[in-house]
Amino acid sequence: MNSRAIIFDLDDTIFATEEFKPYLRTEIGRETIPGLIERDEIEVRERHQGVVEYINKLINSGIAVFIFSDSPSAYCFAILDKGGVKVSRDNIYCSQHKPTVDDNIIFTSYQDILVVGDSPKDIYFAHLRAFPSILLGRLSKKSCEYYNRWTKPSAICTNLDELKSAVDDYLNGQLVFQQHDFKRNYDTVDPDECDLTTIPSENIGHAFEYWPNSDDWDDVEERKKVWFEVKRSIKVAKELTQSQIENSERVAFYNRNKTIGYGKAFKALMWVSFQEFVKWAKKEKLTGKIYLVPTPPSVPMECNKSFPMLILAEWWSKYAYFARKKGEINFILEHFYIVERFLPTPPAHMSNGRREVRPHLETLGTYKKIKKNDGTAVIILDDIVTSGTQMNAVATLLTEVGIFKNEIPFYGYAFARTTRPGADVSELLRLFSASEIAGS
Fold this sequence. Notes:
The chain is α/β, with parallel strands linked by helices and 440 residues long. The chain has two domains: 2-180, 3-Layer(aba) Sandwich (Rossmann fold); 187-438, no CATH class. 35% of the residues lie in helices and 19% in strands. It has 14 helices and 18 strands. It has helices spanning 21-24, 27-38, 51-60, 73-83, 120-129, 141-150, 160-171, 221-234, 242-246, 266-283, 308-325, 358-361, 389-401, 425-438, and strands spanning 2-8, 15-16, 45-46, 64-68, 92-93, 110-117, 133-136, 155-157, 186-187, 204-210, 252-254, 260-262, 288-294, 331-335, 339-341, 364-367, 377-385, 410-418. The strands form five sheets. The protein has a six-stranded parallel sheet with strand order 5-4-1-6-7-8, sandwiched between helices. The chain has a five-stranded parallel sheet with strand order 10-18-17-13-14.
């Protein structure tokens, strides 16, 4: 077995690539950007001056260096070639979907592997594989303290000199992986021992129908409109900070007409979806004090720039306050951020179609020492609902931990419900719930 290897992330670790992201968000952009890079129509710049020379020095000294990137291969090859990184193409792995990277032969080919990246996603990738890790970025003292407390990389480096020193420590056997118990900060449940709580399908509401396949739009303008809002506003809102969202900033995309366009501001959708939510709440005859519990994403919160569903819950609570003062509604909304993902889990679209509750419970927890709460209803919020799996996982956790009194009913609500032709979603949800309870 070989001794040691180093895996480097690409975007914003080796090269500064913020201006490339609009291209990477669309199919036509991903096809276009390699040519722009090769023709010098877009500049390739090091994230830390001298990092390319340093990586090449490691390669020339015989260190096995690999690149693991979430970006597509043609783009990775183009930027690495143009930037002068002398890594073998056989050592470049693209479209990796960190942090839940698939098994790779190199993971067992080396005695030890170091992961270097700029994002907590890189660090959790290392944790899941029991690799030491380095978080590399221009970070403030406060940010370093935060990541040391929650993300727990083996080392944090804020410049190239610190990176060189940390890598030397690794090569000398002084920087090693340490196992961390991430769940110790949370109340959790045993997935195999707990009773599943299932939100009845008729208790799961949504603002809009989301048709993921464009072949099913049938010239219905609303289907196309919602698809764009999901893809260009909802799913990408996590790439904006909370202040950017609250300032109505929009995410940029490269379009087929060769221009950079923008999705709708997520904040604008908060108000639109709240109006639909109020219609649903009145239909359900909801009154009194209602808790809004946002479903966490598939990764710990620090892996993204923001937690859009929490921001949505906070703003809905504000909207409801004023709507109640005007006599338009007779309930109170209280956003209740209590459920966190302490370790990554593969997103539903990467799980080969499997949508099960119990695996979610292995990585979900509630914050400790939260008193039991009284109210009239709990609503689990999600961006898109398909099977209701994540909503049921959160409801199960809350029930088992005992944060709410037993008689409080659970509901679910989402910005959009995934819809496909010929599918009776309510019946599918009912059958799924029955199979989960039966343990199948």
